[in-house]
């Protein structure tokens, strides 16, 4: 069946298979969670093609100019393409129980509302009104330095990255990586294997480690290793909006 990611998302698989309990356990035990195929090959191609439609984006960043690495990304403008809006809402709904459990483990005085709409209304009242879903575009030699996507006081503790091309075929290198830092410990690196259409759910900034006395906080950063050959595009879903 033909899909049109712009007007109607192809995320039936996601709603069926993405179980909050499974995601929560993977985040705690492994540090991240890779989903099954969140988007079909056709949906990935359509999404990757949106990058050329300049009017869909509010801004563009040349990563080299701001010392973020090498490559380019664009933040979508509101209203988001329908498919991206629905993906963002669907992921939020699945992740919010995990976020609230996370807050309990870490002793954070935070509670996230059950729908993305409510969460964003709160963000907007705090002045975080700019949409943060983005597409990234990398060519040979490009890379994305380790970073955290914080855009103000309001934040959601997880974010999602969807791989839109075929690793090993459309590009080589360009691995998505996470690095965990914990006080008085050496850093731990996680290289996340992703095929086209798969999504990874990962901590936005604060990680959780089980310790003998319960849970402790870690700092998580993410990035992309250098693309060796070909081109790589990805879709990032960040749930909090950004300050103007
Ligand atoms: O291109 C990637 O895989 C990383 C994207 C990223 O930094 C993000 O979605 O926040
Ligand atoms: Fe990022």
TrEMBL record:
<keyword id="KW-0408">Iron</keyword>
<dbReference type="GO" id="GO:0016491">
    <property type="term" value="F:oxidoreductase activity"/>
</dbReference>
<dbReference type="InterPro" id="IPR005123">
    <property type="entry name" value="Oxoglu/Fe-dep_dioxygenase_dom"/>
</dbReference>
<comment type="similarity">
    <text>Belongs to the iron/ascorbate-dependent oxidoreductase family.</text>
</comment>
<protein>
    <submittedName>
        <fullName>2OG-Fe(II) oxygenase</fullName>
    </submittedName>
</protein>
<keyword id="KW-0560">Oxidoreductase</keyword>
<feature type="domain" description="Fe2OG dioxygenase">
    <location>
        <begin position="129"/>
        <end position="242"/>
    </location>
</feature>
<dbReference type="Pfam" id="PF09859">
    <property type="entry name" value="Oxygenase-NA"/>
</dbReference>
<dbReference type="GO" id="GO:0046872">
    <property type="term" value="F:metal ion binding"/>
</dbReference>
<keyword id="KW-0479">Metal-binding</keyword>
<dbReference type="InterPro" id="IPR018655">
    <property type="entry name" value="DUF2086"/>
</dbReference>
């Amino acid at each position: 069946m033909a899909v049109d990611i712009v007007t109607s998302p192809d995320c039936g698989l996601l709603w069926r298979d993405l179980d909050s309990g499974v995601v929560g356990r993977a985040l705690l035990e492994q540090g991240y969670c890779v989903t099954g195929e969140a988007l079909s090959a056709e949906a990935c191609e359509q999404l990757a093609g949106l990058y050329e439609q300049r009017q869909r984006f509010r801004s563009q960043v040349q990563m080299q100019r701001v010392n973020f690495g090498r490559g380019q990304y664009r933040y979508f403008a509101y209203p988001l393409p329908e498919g991206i809006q629905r993906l963002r809402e669907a992921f939020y709904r699945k992740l919010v129980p995990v976020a609230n459990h996370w807050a309990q483990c870490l002793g954070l005085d935070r509670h996230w509302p059950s729908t993305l709409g409510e969460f964003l209304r709160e963000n907007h009242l705090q002045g975080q009104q700019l949409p943060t879903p983005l597409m990234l575009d990398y060519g040979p030699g490009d890379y994305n330095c380790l970073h955290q996507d914080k855009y103000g006081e309001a934040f959601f503790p997880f974010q999602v990255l969807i791989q839109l091309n075929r690793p090993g075929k459309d590009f080589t290198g360009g691995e998505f990586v996470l690095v965990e830092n914990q006080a008085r410990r050496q850093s731990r690196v996680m290289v996340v294997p992703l095929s086209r259409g798969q999504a990874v759910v990962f901590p936005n900034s604060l990680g959780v480690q089980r310790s003998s006395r319960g849970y402790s906080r870690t700092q998580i950063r993410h990035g992309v290793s250098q693309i060796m050959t070909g081109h790589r595009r990805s879709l990032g879903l960040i749930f909090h909006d950004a300050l103007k």
